[in-house]
Sequence to fold (97 residues):
Amino acid sequence: MAKRTNKYKLTLEEISLAKEDDLSNAPLTLEFDNHDNLFNIINAVKSKSIFEDENQSVEFAIGLKMFTEVILKNRDNELFKELQPAIGEFMKKLKSK
Fold:
């Protein structure tokens, strides 16, 4: 039986660029899965008031969950070996806040 995951679609669109000579990019749409309910995670991070700016809470939650999901899916990848213990400790600290 296949493992059940949550499916998401994220669209990234440029609003403005810092340098006028940078080339503009078309919006990027990414479909991905995550074992956690990302909206529950976002709400939990927002409720902790870690950051003064609520948008930063959302950015942090999405970035962290996407990053850690890639690490989980690639746990045997040598690139992540040194990070895994630190990420585990960081997640414990975050959850205890």
